[in-house]
């Protein structure tokens, strides 16, 4: 491949720096969006519970989880299951993480 006389090492360095800056900006935007989504999820949850009640909201979450776990994309199913398991551990830790209750069992 012939080299372009107008393409200099300095241009290459500037392009690489631009790509690094673009990647950083994308990461910062993703973090910002994630924080915004988390805050909106809290508002959405409380709004749903207020409007429809806990039972209907729980049924909606059950349906949503079922849809995610049946998604045609294996990556989506894996991520949904991983996040579900992390949530289970957070809110209902396994008993082996705690000392056995006194009483001889």
Verbal overview:
The longest helix has 44 residues, at 9-52. It is elongated, with a radius of gyration of 24 Å. With 105 residues, the chain is mainly α. Helix 1 (9-52) runs antiparallel to helix 2 (54-69). The protein has helices at 9-52, 54-69, 74-91. It is built from three helices and no strands. 74% of the residues lie in helices and 0% in strands.
In short:
With 105 residues, this protein is mostly helical. It has helices spanning 9-52, 54-69, 74-91.
What are its keywords?
mainly alpha, 0% strand
Write the layout of secondary structure elements.
Blueprint: H1 9-52, H2 54-69, H3 74-91
Number of helices: 3
The N- to C-terminal Cα distance equals: 76 Å
The coarse silhouette is: elongated
Helix/strand-derived class?
mainly alpha
Number of DSSP E strands: 0
Which regions are unreliable across 5 or more consecutive residues at pLDDT < 50?
Answer: none
Rg, Cα atoms, Å: 24 Å
Task: Indicate the percent of residues in helices.
Answer: over 70%
The average pLDDT value, as a whole number, equals 85
Strand content: under 5%
Please describe the biggest sheet, giving its number of strands, its sense, and whether it closes into a barrel: none
Order of helix and strand elements from N to C terminus? HHH
